[in-house]
Task: inverse folding
């Protein structure tokens, strides 16, 4: 589990890992499928992308932009460009917390063990998103786990947003954290 994509806060296309676990990407994928790049802007935003899903019959390019906001918040924007229909999962590993959806809005409150608000995340996308909360207890192969120290594996919470990609999509998650 910890070597696969479901252990990360990442984008998964068609249920497939970006790389083939247990082998080096360099040995198994041609160069055109291994290209990735990252840039850091003057505003403190980091953008990275890869062509790992170019190997699909209908290729998909994935990029992620992470920006720290002046108010202490964080924006994570995933851009997917491809052709044909693809099932996309965007995972956020949250660890030992609890989450609840705020009404019917694409917004979640993240609470600690004492039910104190630790973060809020709001989603925005032109794609029709569905959401799920998974834990290692409920989905052993794909749910959330975290390792607070070497050799320890504890169930954790994973917030998953899913959509069907038709050509391209942009999914924006804005994390805000209470002050004080």
Result:
């Amino acid at each position: 589990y910890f070597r696969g994509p479901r252990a990360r806060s990442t984008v998964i296309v068609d249920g497939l890992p970006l790389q083939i676990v247990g082998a080096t990407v360099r040995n198994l994928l041609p160069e055109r499928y291994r290209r990735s790049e990252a840039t850091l802007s003057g505003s403190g935003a980091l953008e990275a992308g890869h062509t790992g899903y170019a190997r699909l019959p209908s290729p998909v390019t994935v990029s992620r932009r992470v920006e720290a906001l002046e108010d202490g918040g964080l924006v994570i924007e995933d851009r997917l460009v491809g052709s044909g229909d693809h099932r996309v999962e965007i995972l956020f590993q949250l660890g030992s917390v609890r989450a609840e959806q705020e009404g019917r809005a694409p917004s979640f409150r993240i609470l600690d063990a004492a039910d104190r608000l630790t973060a809020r995340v709001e989603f925005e996308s032109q794609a029709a998103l569905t959401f799920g909360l998974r834990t290692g207890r409920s989905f052993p192969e794909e749910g959330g786990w975290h390792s607070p120290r070497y050799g320890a594996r504890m169930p954790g919470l994973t917030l998953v947003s899913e959509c069907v990609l038709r050509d391209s999509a942009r999914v924006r998650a804005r994390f805000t954290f209470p002050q004080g």
The helical segments are 25-28. The two ends are 36 Å apart (CA to CA). Residues 23-30 have pLDDT under 50 and may be disordered.
